[in-house]
Amino acid sequence: MIYLLPIITALLGTFIHYLAVQLLFKKILPARQQALAKQLGAFAGQQLSFSTIKSKLTDPEKIKNIIPLVEAHLDTFLREKLPKAMPVLSMFIGDSIVNQIKSHLVAELDTLFPVMISQYLDNVEKDLNIEKIVADKIAGISADELQKISQQFLHKEISQFKLLGAFTGFVSGIAAIVILIFC
């Protein structure tokens, strides 16, 4: 009977760690969700500075990537839509004039886009509070969904924690046997 002690304590250790995990996910985490949401929101707000986002969105290389789309749109506008809207102009606008107008507009837009996007982002920055958005999203997650996400994310660690309970229980059982035999 005494040799069953390590197995019983190993099972007891696993069960205690299982209860600790359940307590964490069913009681503690939902009770602290609002505070966690605020802290994660503050962290995200610090890490995602709007100036970093703005510099990436106004990067000249990124803007150059949209110029071909603008150029294609201008070509369609100058060759199809403008002559339909103003038929008299179609008599004066040929391929060479369309190409000249398009090249001048594209060159102008190439310098205008960074300024325009930067100004737009300045206006967006006033209304965009990353900290609040993240905090609100996390606070809005249901307790069950938060538990499910956390357990999926921490599945390996939870399993290791339960195994730690089994191991410490087993070692405690062996230690108890040693104490009983030698005392």
Describe this structure in words.
This protein is mainly alpha-helical. The chain has one domain (2-182). It has helices at residues 5-31, 33-47, 50-57, 60-85, 95-127, 130-139, 143-153, 155-182. α1 (5-31) runs antiparallel to α8 (155-182). It starts with a helix and ends with a helix. Keywords: Membrane, Transmembrane, Transmembrane helix.
Entry summary:
The chain has 183 residues and is an all-alpha fold.
CA distance, first residue to last residue: 18 Å
The tally of structural domains comes to: 1
DSSP strand content: under 5%
Overall 3D geometry? rod-shaped
Q: What ranges have pLDDT less than 50 throughout 5 or more consecutive residues?
A: none
Rg (C-alpha, Å): 33 Å
Oligomer: single chain
Counting helices, strands and paired strands, the structural category is mainly alpha
**For the report, how would you describe the main beta sheet?**
none
User: How many DSSP helices?
Assistant: 8
Number of separate strands: 0
H-E order: HHHHHHHH
Organism: Chitinophaga qingshengii
Protein name: DUF445 family protein
Keywords: Membrane, Transmembrane, Transmembrane helix
Transmembrane segments: 6-25, 163-182
Map the helices and strands.
Elements: H1 5-31, H2 33-47, H3 50-57, H4 60-85, H5 95-127, H6 130-139, H7 143-153, H8 155-182
Organism: Chitinophaga qingshengii
Transmembrane segments: 6-25, 163-182
Keywords: Membrane, Transmembrane, Transmembrane helix
